[in-house]
């Protein structure tokens, strides 16, 4: 299969490098990472060890492929959609944090599949990504139900050795992943700890409160996600990625803009629309917004 991985950050590089074990992969990213990948390929270390040679480019327009996998930060979705709309793809799969699929679908002719990924990844240096936790990719039709394209993409991922489930209940799973991110990302970023620090103690309680609030908002949106299920999903990801520095902690470490709006911003906005109170998400959002404003990285 010809695969374009749009966004060569930590997760995009990991997924692209693993897919390149059996597929023709092109990574779209920035230099110096791209030049390094073109010259020496990608080294994967940690929980998975591999050396693969995907193609790589900084050119974002005019690509054609069987599949485009979108791994850019949620706030870069409009830019990714504009670039992808100049190309041609049989299917587009979003593996981003937040609920970005509809934004992609509104701007692309190609069918857009929803996806979540809980692999832990960290870009160590150009051309070197560490897998810090073997999670799982879950993908399927955006509105739920079965989809032949999703089956094909799932097989392509599994053939490359990526733990993948094709699911027929993606709306619930997207909210479940949002609950996991609401529990893990801000708490680890603000407390500057690895995911595993949320296995017990006050961080555990705080993360669980954020996840429970998110599940409540999901139910108000008509999605069947119990508090227990959201909490169990959170605990499972904390355990599977205990050594991982969450993507938001990596952003804070590197003084970059975070995905606060795609995670807590969405939970708070939807809660407001349903007149629900989500004090934990609101506080975490305001703390991160304050940090972003203080660092001058807020747009
Ligand atoms: O999605 C993640 C992230 O860091 O953004 C998890 C699954 C929480 C892994 O750290």
From TrEMBL:
Domain Ketopantoate reductase N-terminal: start-end pairs: 3-143
Pathway: Cofactor biosynthesis; coenzyme A biosynthesis
Keyword NADP attributed: yes
Catalytic activity: (R)-pantoate + NADP(+) = 2-dehydropantoate + NADPH + H(+); (R)-pantoate + NAD(+) = 2-dehydropantoate + NADH + H(+)
Keyword vocabulary terms for this entry: Coenzyme A biosynthesis, NADP, Oxidoreductase
GO cellular component: cytoplasm
GO molecular function, one term: 2-dehydropantoate 2-reductase activity
Cited InterPro entries: 6-PGluconate_DH-like_C_sf, 6PGD_dom2, ApbA, Ketopantoate_reductase, KPA_reductase, KPR_N, NAD(P)-bd_dom_sf
Domain spans labelled Ketopantoate reductase C-terminal: 172-290
Record EC number: 1.1.1.169
UniProt xrefs under SUPFAM superfamilies: 6-phosphogluconate dehydrogenase C-terminal domain-like, NAD(P)-binding Rossmann-fold domains
Gene3D superfamilies according to UniProt: N-(1-d-carboxylethyl)-l-norvaline Dehydrogenase, domain 2 (1.10.1040.10), NAD(P)-binding Rossmann-like Domain (3.40.50.720)
GO biological process terms, semicolon-separated: coenzyme A biosynthetic process; pantothenate biosynthetic process
Family: Belongs to the ketopantoate reductase family.
Job of this protein: Catalyzes the NADPH-dependent reduction of ketopantoate into pantoic acid.
PANTHER family tied to this protein: 2-DEHYDROPANTOATE 2-REDUCTASE, 2-DEHYDROPANTOATE 2-REDUCTASE-RELATED
The protein's name in its UniProt record: 2-dehydropantoate 2-reductase
Organism encoding this protein: Halogeometricum borinquense
